[in-house]
Q: What sequence folds into this?
């Protein structure tokens, strides 16, 4: 087939949809190398085509996740293409010296992070660039999980959802990870409680409409034996006024 | 007893992210440096998109799992080659997924067209069961609404190529239209979809 420049450029739609045979694809790629405008347009059309994939989303079988993670564990990565590759955030990679118990919980965090990422991605207006903040938070959570005295407890939440808490008395920190918490009326709120000889508020937990939250708080944890979540009037309470919908036992 | 509390809900981020500076890009960047935890989070955030995309094209659930696994191993291998200047991490991953899915069906069709046809009845039943579980997200709804703004021939050209993995000459035959028309409609259709979805700057 003889193609003029215009013809070739028209192929950009078919190229973005992977609707060219090998020969025409290679010809178009040669054209792309010399055409800056085409590359810019292609980037947009490829992003548009990817939306068609998003619209076809189907939950992947759980076994696939294990297979993929096993496989990457023994797959070598290629080096960056050029030496001038931009730094990727400048984070020191977390060392692999974690205690295995903490590592198991960390896997749960990864899932929770994934859920957060997915939702952020779902809503363009919430997809945001505050990665530095996320990095700090996830490292904070990660290092809490790696604390030698970290304890964790998880359970179903009365009324719907799952929750887990991880606490380190040494660090005086506790993290609540929850998924699928029921949405509350505007005049109610979730509140965390640190329960020992006395009951101390761990703060009001702001849960988005989708019910998934990761909440980190600091507090004196010596003597705390349970960490609980209850529904309280807007603004929170001095002491719990309702039966907790979740309680994690420590120790 | 200290009462200070530092709520740090990970979900709280400001609106209006650029294509390359989001959470998935951060995770992919970490994965590029060998962080398997970040990779698993990236997987969780994108697996339904990838699996759904592949399944639409390949249709056989077992083969779709194989292809999806190949895609993620490739994402892991090539993570350092991702360039945020060229698009988002999600686009990068889904483009690879679609490319591999299309390659798979074309290879299979070329190699064993007859067996494929014989097997297609059972495959279709399994496929129908799996797509029952298609995720209803706001974003997916928006894509469907935008697809409705295309002309019939634009929409059919785009979806027969993307979802069924047909080449544009195949689409032209299926729609009984000239090649040039289909090429143009694929591009017009994507451009209209792009504008409706607000992709780009």
A:
């Amino acid at each position: 087939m003889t193609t003029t420049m215009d013809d070739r450029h028209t192929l950009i739609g078919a190229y973005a949809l992977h609707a060219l045979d090998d020969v025409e694809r290679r010809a178009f790629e040669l054209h792309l190398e010399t055409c800056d405008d085409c590359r810019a347009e292609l980037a947009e059309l490829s992003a548009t085509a990817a939306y068609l994939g998003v619209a076809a989303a189907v939950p992947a079988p759980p076994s696939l996740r294990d297979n993929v993670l096993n496989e990457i564990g023994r797959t070598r990565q290629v080096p960056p293409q050029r030496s001038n590759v931009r730094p990727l955030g400048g984070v020191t990679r977390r060392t692999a010296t974690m205690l295995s118990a903490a590592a198991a919980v960390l896997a749960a965090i990864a899932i929770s992070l994934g859920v957060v990422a997915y939702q952020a991605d779902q809503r363009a207006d919430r997809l945001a660039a505050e990665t530095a903040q996320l990095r700090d938070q996830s490292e904070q959570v990660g290092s809490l999980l790696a604390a030698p005295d970290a304890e964790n407890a998880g359970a179903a939440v009365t009324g719907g959802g799952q929750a887990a808490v991880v606490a380190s008395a040494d660090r005086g920190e506790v993290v609540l990870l929850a998924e699928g918490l029921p949405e509350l009326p505007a005049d109610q709120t979730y509140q965390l409680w640190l329960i020992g000889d006395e009951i101390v508020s761990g703060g009001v937990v702001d849960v988005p409409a989708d019910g998934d939250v990761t909440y980190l708080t600091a507090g004196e944890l010596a003597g705390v034996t349970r960490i609980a979540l209850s529904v309280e009037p807007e603004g929170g309470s001095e002491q719990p006024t309702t039966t907790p919908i979740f309680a994690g036992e420590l120790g | 007893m200290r009462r200070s509390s530092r709520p740090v809900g990970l979900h709280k981020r400001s609106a209006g992210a650029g294509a390359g500076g989001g959470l998935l890009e951060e995770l992919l960047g970490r994965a590029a440096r060998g962080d398997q935890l970040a990779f698993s989070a990236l997987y969780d955030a994108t697996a339904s998109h990838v699996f759904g995309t592949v399944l639409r094209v390949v249709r056989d659930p077992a083969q779709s799992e194989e292809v999806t696994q190949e895609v993620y191993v490739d994402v892991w291998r090539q993570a350092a080659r991702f360039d945020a200047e060229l698009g988002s991490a999600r686009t990068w991953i889904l483009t690879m997924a679609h490319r591999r899915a299309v390659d798979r069906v074309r290879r299979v069709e070329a190699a064993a067209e007859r067996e494929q046809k014989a097997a297609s009845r059972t495959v279709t039943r399994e496929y129908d069961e799996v797509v029952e579980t298609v995720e209803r997200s706001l974003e997916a709804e928006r894509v469907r609404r935008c697809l409705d703004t295309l002309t019939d021939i634009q929409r059919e050209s785009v979806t027969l190529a993307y979802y069924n993995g047909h080449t544009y000459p195949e689409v032209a035959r299926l729609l009984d239209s000239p090649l040039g028309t289909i090429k143009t409609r694929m591009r017009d259709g994507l451009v209209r979809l792009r504008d409706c979805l607000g992709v780009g700057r």
